[in-house]
Amino acid sequence: MVDTESKIKELLTLLEKEKPKVFTTDDSGYEELDDMDHCIFVQNRHDSEDLYILIEEEGFTLSCGDWDSHYEATEEDYGAMLTDLKDYLSGNSYLAMVYAEDEWICSLTLKCDMMDPHIIKEKIRDFLISADCEPLFDDIKKEGANVFCVYWDGTKNRELQLLAEK
Known about the structure:
four-stranded antiparallel β-sheet, 4 helices, globular
């Protein structure tokens, strides 16, 4: 288990230029947090989705729009979270939010060099298979899907359409 108090300080230092705010169960709108939980809120200055980091005894959750990722309270997972966070904030990765007929299917993180629709489709397939949700990928193959590529710098956001297979 990691020392969450020291990790909060580390995260606040990392996010300093983004002017993060820390909330606890005592703050309005955050009453659902447990007594020892914290939520770091980072408002996006670039017309894109805001970022939340939930810090609980059992781990960490990064969330942004319809995307979230969970990390256990271990040094290894905390390191992975820091890597994901730094990649997203620096523009080295984006959040791919997948919808079919206005229904959310899944969200995943992709590196910026993965903008080819065929590669994105493969990554979505791999993600859904790993989550034991392969029938959702079958739906995407039949119906197609829209992928919203969300960057920390919202000027780079784009939408891609994955066409149905014939």
